[in-house]
Amino acid sequence: MHPLDWIIIGGYLVWVVYDGLKRARGTDKVEGYFLAGRSLPWWAVGLSVMATQMSAITLVGTTGQGYAGGLGLVQMYFGLPLAMIILSVTLVPFLYRARVFTAYEYLERRFDRKTRALTSLIFLVSRGLAVGVIISAPAVVLSVVLGWNLTLTALAIGVPTTCYTMLGGVQAVAWADVKQMVIIVGGLLAVVAALVLGLPGGVGLGDAMHLAGAAGRLTAIDFTPDLNQTYTFWSGLFGGLFLMLGYFGCDQSQVQRHLTADSVDAARRSLLMSAYWKIPLQALILLTGVLVFVFHLFQAPPMLFNPVRDAAARTGGGAAEYAGLEREFEEAFAARRTAAGEMVAARRGGSAGGIAEARAAFAASQQRVGAVRGRAAGLVEEATGEEYSDVNYVFPTFIITHLPVGLVGLLIAAIFAAAMSSAAAELAALSTTSVIDFYRRYLNRGAADRHYLRASKVATALWGVVATVFAVFAANLGSLIEVVNQVGSYFYGSLLGVFVLALGFRRATANGAFLGLFAGMGSVALVESVADVSFLWNNVVGTAAVVLVGLAVSWLQPAD
Amino acid sequence: MTPQPDDVRRVLDTRGDEPLAATYVAVVVVEAVVLAALWLFSRHFSG
Questions:
Q1: Which of B36, B46, B16, B8 is nearest to A78 (CA)?
Q2: CB contact under 8 A, B46 and A213
Q3: Which of A276, A277, A278, A514 would you mutate first to test chain B, the one with the most B CBs within 10 A?
Q4: From the CB of residue A487, how many other CB atoms can be counted at a distance below 10 Å?
């Protein structure tokens, strides 16, 4: 990498920590540390909400999904705007006025302490694992693509994040999020501009889109009523609605964001920013991946994007066969490049029949490239004994190999920013839940505010260490974007069900909520084990089971 | 344990809230437009 790129990355890391230290002033009380004194404007909270959700997993994994599969993943977010409206009307004003630190704190007031303890524990377990994945995703990918040491890369993300979160509290996290969001979106737009400007002479943006469409990369909406298919219009609208209700309404890392707003209205408006911008932003990220795909129609891509697995296959038992596949891949790529050029030429001057013929020839050449890649992946799996997916390696490889000096540094900094903004929010939330829902509730009640502030900083530091260490060991988790979402989907629906009982049913009892929560998680586990349905539907199953069982128990055993 | 009366009154008191009904309608309309645009974009280039 060029020294200028190193300077940009180093400068970004120093700046984030320095800014966090500056923000440490004014956080001398627990409310200031955990909720920024409820003082932030709606737009800052809104950007912080979006930055928290857009982790490096989103940036790296989604562009890779755009390259490999096209725009279909965008459907996962179709329920998000509706979820934001529902939350703005119901849970957000409710939690804000209840003046709680955590969403789970409210559940003790409404139900009892065991319900609060269980929901808090579920959050700590699920997000404690997720924060490790959030750091490990970019660490693994960057260490492989750039040849960096994995441990040092994880430390380069985890240590500054822990420092500014521990010292500056949520105030530092939120303002860092704002700047990180600017870096991420700015970096993405710069890549899109570079990709469009880098199209070969004679190939316009319209041609590029037609090529992507012919390769099946622009199918954004699929109305197939198939429960097994991961991303469809229906799973995104209904399953996604429940996932987003659970994530933004019951996950402390997001609840804590809107509790920092300076008024109820600001809290509601902060969520509505995502309602407007999330789908277009996700479409932009996926489209970036699609444009990388088009770029590689004319510039040879590596046969496989993970260089470590590629090297393993070259030296493994099937090395000769792998070398043969590489030659076959070069021929297939050359044929596809020719077919792409012919399709562009046909669109310029050919008849409708000529265009259709050229399009079919291009689609066939794309299938051949895909088939060779598939066989190569099979050889890697034989050589390593592990499932192979290089979705997360596509975008970083493109950045390193094809972007100009300066932009490489900016994009690597953007990946760091995406990882750090999400990890910081998780660390703050984990620390808040640990201190407010357990330490202050059970271990040390009635201590001075200054004591809890110190305890909060220690808790943040401990969670930072746990997350960074876990990140080093979470190296082989496949397509990381789905792992994190799938882990969440086991719990979000059930947590959401408890809040639905709390807010929607006056007769719901503490025992109903507590037993319903177990029933919800059990139902999701059962569905996962017996049916092959999209993970997005888990959230619907979990919520429904909690509400039904919760109401049944409340009816059989009403409160006094 | 159910919320205390004061607590309930405070969390349910929406008198000072800014009415956002028009914003909610705008969100739904914008989403419908975005989805329609995605579908048309998809059909135009994939068909």
A1: B36
A2: yes
A3: A276
A4: 18
| B27 to chain A, closest Cα gap in Å | 6
ipTM higher than threshold 0.90: no
Task: Write down the pTM of the prediction.
Answer: 0.90
**Separation CA A494–CA A522 (nearest Å):** 9
Question: Which single residue is written with the structure tokens 């066989």?
Answer: A375
Three-state DSSP class for residue A487: helix
Taking only the tens of pLDDT, chain A with its 560 residues reads: 899 999 999 998 888 888 877 877 767 888 888 998 898 999 999 999 998 888 887 888 899 999 999 999 999 999 999 999 999 998 999 899 888 999 999 999 989 999 999 999 999 988 888 888 888 878 888 887 888 888 888 899 999 999 999 988 998 899 888 988 898 899 999 999 999 998 998 899 999 999 999 999 999 999 988 888 888 999 999 989 998 999 999 999 999 999 999 999 999 999 999 999 999 999 999 999 999 999 999 999 999 998 888 888 888 778 889 899 999 999 999 999 999 999 999 988 878 888 899 999 999 999 999 999 999 999 888 888 878 888 889 999 999 999 999 999 999 998 888 888 889 999 999 999 999 999 999 998 989 999 999 999 999 999 999 988 888 776 555 555 456 556 666 788 899 999 999 988 988 999 999 999 999 999 998 988 888 787 888 889 999 999 999 999 999 987 75
Query: A364 to each of A215, A332, B46, how far by Cα in Å?
Result: 9, 10, 15
